[in-house]
Specification:
The chain is mainly β. It contains one helix and eleven strands; from the N terminus they run ββαβββββββββ. The protein has two domains: 94 residues, no CATH class; 44 residues, no CATH class. The two termini are 24 Å apart.
Length: 150
C-alpha cells in the first residue's frame, strides 16, 4: 500500500463516433493474449496474468458478455485504468477504490509501468478526429474545464 501521488490521464484513442464502454476497456486489457517468442514460435496464451498452453484450455469465462475465446487482449489480471471518462463527462468506475489517499493492492491498475503503486489512472474517451487521425483531436473541444475539477 502506498500513498497516491499521481493522477495519470490516458487517452483511449477512439474515433469520435465510437460508443466506448467500460466493457471495451476490460476486454482490451484483460482478454487473453497469444504469446510468441522472438522467432515466432508459439508459447501459449496469457490470461489474467497466467499462462495457458493453448486457447482450448482457457476457462469458460466471459468479459463484458463476450466469451474470452473470442477476445484478443493484453492478458492482464486487471485493467490499466481505475476510471473511464466518456465524452459527455460521465465517469465509469472500472476498479473500485475506497476513496482514501492510499492505493491498496486491490485498487492498483496497470496504467504505466513503474508508477502504478502511487498512481490512479483515468482514461479519457477520444483521441482521434473525425478523419480518424490519431493525436490531432483536441480534448478541450469536448471536455470543458469543469470536468477536470472536483
Amino acid at each position: 500500500m502506498a500513498e497516491q501521488k499521481i493522477l495519470c490521464a490516458h487517452c483511449a484513442d477512439t474515433h469520435p463516433d465510437f460508443p466506448l464502454t467500460g466493457d471495451h476497456i476490460l476486454q482490451w486489457h484483460m482478454g487473453p493474449k497469444d504469446m510468441y517468442n522472438k522467432e515466432g514460435g508459439y508459447l501459449g496464451v496469457k490470461y489474467l496474468g497466467k499462462m495457458y498452453s493453448r486457447r482450448v484450455v482457457l476457462p469458460l469465462d466471459f468479459i463484458g458478455g463476450k466469451p474470452i475465446a473470442e477476445l484478443n487482449g493484453r492478458g492482464w489480471d486487471r485493467p490499466g485504468y481505475r476510471d473511464l471518462m466518456l465524452r459527455n463527462g460521465h465517469i465509469i468506475n472500472l476498479v473500485p477504490d475506497n476513496g482514501d489517499d492510499w492505493i491498496d493492492p486491490d485498487e492498483m491498475t496497470w496504467g504505466a509501468k513503474g508508477i502504478n503503486s502511487i498512481a490512479s489512472h483515468i482514461c479519457l474517451a477520444g483521441g482521434r478526429n473525425s478523419e480518424n487521425e490519431s493525436g490531432v483531436f483536441k480534448f478541450r473541444e469536448i471536455y470543458n474545464d469543469a470536468m477536470f475539477t472536483s
